[in-house]
């Protein structure tokens, strides 16, 4: 089943609770299945799925109890994950993730869709229903914040193999 | 292009939005500026760090995929009512609705006839027992009243050994009825005869039947009613006598 992992990745950073994130992704896939006739074959399926996910998120996020649940929801248990590398790498990952989660939601969404999921800015503008200039400014502000708070010169945080994996996952732009 | 201009464009994702001329200028600047090349390298490092951190914080999706596939195959995790029970459930619901409808009809019919009978009892009590002044017609004038109110009725001159004494036209629940009084010096009984169509519609029995509709006591006064062919009859008086008269009228009317 394509893109479930990608959807879950973004949903986790939006909901911050695994159960809520999985529910969001499941609902996204069910809605996509029901509305598959609306999908245009020559368009980007991943962008279409993310548009559904963001719509659902916005629908639920408007409800105060969901927002409350998100605000006080338990953080993902990073310590239980098998993080490759040494202790410094582990701490650094914590810092990066904490910085992402501290970003305002609108910046976080753009950052995740752009940097992590590799969607084009034009596609993100369509998904979030905002002008492309707004997407660029949000992305720029998010990058500035992360650059300021993530430790500079933290040393190598990934092995060569992980670096190659990350590079392979990212779309080529330059 | 200067360094501060290049800095604003160094985010890897921005390349798609740059026009060809700006892209060319940026490329020329990066060729000549080591600091900006290092800065671009840092931007890539930042992207890798973000991607790695988010990936590591994402749980495995195998179970989730299985759950979604199960839902898509039409096997919902939870259903309000098991599908195999749908017909028994529907039959049960229909039975409950039918029962409620019948009970409501019976209740309404009973209440309608009860009101009619109470009206008849009131008339009997005031006009026959308490002898409140009314304009009565003698037994010899009854035929005229019958013709005006219940033309097809064959009114007996004696019932249960009691002769017809008098009669008058009255109203029961706003319907016209012929109030006949049978009796002797010791006891009297009122017989209200009306057209069948003036009985409460929801209390009518099957056509051409003479069925006892209602029987009750009200403060020591008995009342019994039935519907015959084209006629409805309410008998009021001593409880035993009223039932006896009603039974005889069922046969004669």
User: What is the third-level CATH name, the topology of the largest domain in chain A?
Assistant: Arc Repressor Mutant, subunit A
State the low-pLDDT regions of chain B, or none.
Answer: 77-81
Number of helices of chain B: 7
The number of distinct structural domains of chain B comes to 2
Query: What's the domain count of chain A?
Result: 2
SS strand fraction of chain A: under 5%
Distance between the termini of chain A: 30 Å
Percentage of residues assigned to helices of chain A? 55-70%
Biggest sheet descriptor of chain A: none
Number of helices of chain A: 9
Relative strand content of chain B: 15-25%
Question: Which class best fits the helix and strand makeup of chain A?
Answer: mainly alpha
- Which runs of chain A of at least 5 residues are low in confidence (pLDDT < 50)? 67-76, 78-82, 153-159
Helix content of chain B: 40-55%
Average pLDDT taken over every residue of chain A: 77
Q: Could you state the order of secondary-structure elements of chain B as H and E? A: HHHHHEHEEEEEEEH
Rounded mean pLDDT of chain B is 80
Radius of gyration of chain A: 17 Å
Top CATH class of the largest domain in chain B: Alpha Beta
Shape-level CATH architecture of the largest domain in chain B: 2-Layer Sandwich
Structure commentary:
The complex is a heterodimer of chains A (174) and B (253). Chain A is mainly alpha-helical. Chain A contains nine helices and no strands. In chain A, helix 2 (18-34) packs across helix 3 and helix 5 (87-102) packs antiparallel against helix 8 (132-149). Mean pLDDT of chain A is 77; it is low at 67-76, 78-82 and 153-159. By secondary structure, chain B is α+β, with helices and mostly antiparallel strands. Chain B has two domains: 3-58; 108-252, Phosphorylase Kinase, domain 1, CATH 3.30.200. In chain B, strands 1, 2, 3, 4, 5, 6, 7 and 8 form an eight-stranded antiparallel beta sheet that branches. The model of chain B is unreliable at 77-81 (pLDDT under 50). The longest helix of chain B has 44 residues, at 86-129. Chain A binds chain B through residues 1, 4-5, 8-9, 12-13, 18, 22, 25-26, 29-30, 33, 76, 78, 81, 83, 92-93, 96-97, 100, 111-112, 114-116, 120-122, 132, 136, 139-140, 143, 146-147, 150, 157-158, 162-163, 166-167, 169-170, 173-174, and chain B through 8, 11-17, 42-43, 46-59, 61, 64-65, 67-69, 71-72.
């Amino acid at each position: 089943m394509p893109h479930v992992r990608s959807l879950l990745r973004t949903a986790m950073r939006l909901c911050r609770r695994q159960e809520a994130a999985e529910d969001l992704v499941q609902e996204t896939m069910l809605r996509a299945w029901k509305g598959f006739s609306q999908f245009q074959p020559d368009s980007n399926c991943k962008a279409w799925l993310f548009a559904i996910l963001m719509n659902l998120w916005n629908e639920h996020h408007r409800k105060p109890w969901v927002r409350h649940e998100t605000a006080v929801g338990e953080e993902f248990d990073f310590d239980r994950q098998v993080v490759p590398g040494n202790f410094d790498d582990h701490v650094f990952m914590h810092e990066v993730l904490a910085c992402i989660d501290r970003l305002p939601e609108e910046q976080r969404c753009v950052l995740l869709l752009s940097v992590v999921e590799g969607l084009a800015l034009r596609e993100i503008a369509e998904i979030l229903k905002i002008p492309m200039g707004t997407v660029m400014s949000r992305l720029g502000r998010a990058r500035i914040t992360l650059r300021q708070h993530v430790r500079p010169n933290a040393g190598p945080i990934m092995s060569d193999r992980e670096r190659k994996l990350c590079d392979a996952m990212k779309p080529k732009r330059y | 292009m200067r360094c501060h201009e290049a800095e604003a464009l160094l985010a890897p994702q921005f390349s798609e939005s740059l026009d060809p001329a700006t892209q060319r200028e940026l490329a020329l600047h990066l060729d000549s500026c080591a600091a900006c090349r290092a800065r671009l390298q840092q931007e890539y490092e930042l992207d890798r760090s973000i991607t790695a951190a988010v990936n590591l914080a994402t749980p495995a999706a195998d179970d989730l995929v299985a759950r979604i596939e199960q839902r898509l195959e039409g096997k919902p995790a939870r259903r309000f009512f098991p599908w195999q029970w749908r017909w028994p459930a529907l039959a049960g619901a229909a039975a409950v609705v039918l029962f409620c409808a019948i009970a409501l009809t019976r209740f309404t019919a009973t209440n309608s006839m009860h009101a009619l009978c109470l009206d008849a009892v009131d008339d009997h009590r005031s006009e026959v027992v308490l002898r409140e002044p009314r304009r009565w017609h003698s037994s010899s004038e009854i035929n005229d009243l019958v013709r005006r109110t219940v033309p097809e009725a064959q009114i007996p001159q004696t019932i249960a050994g009691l002769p017809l004494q008098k009669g008058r036209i009255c109203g029961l629940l706003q319907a016209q009825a012929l109030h006949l009084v049978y009796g002797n010096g010791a006891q009297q009984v009122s017989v209200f005869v009306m057209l069948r169509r003036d009985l409460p519609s929801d209390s009518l029995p099957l056509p051409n039947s003479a069925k006892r509709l209602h029987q009750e006591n009200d403060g020591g006064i008995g009342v019994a009613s039935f519907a015959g062919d084209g006629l409805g009859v309410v008998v009021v008086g001593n409880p035993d006598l009223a039932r006896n008269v009603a039974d005889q009228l069922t046969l004669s009317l």
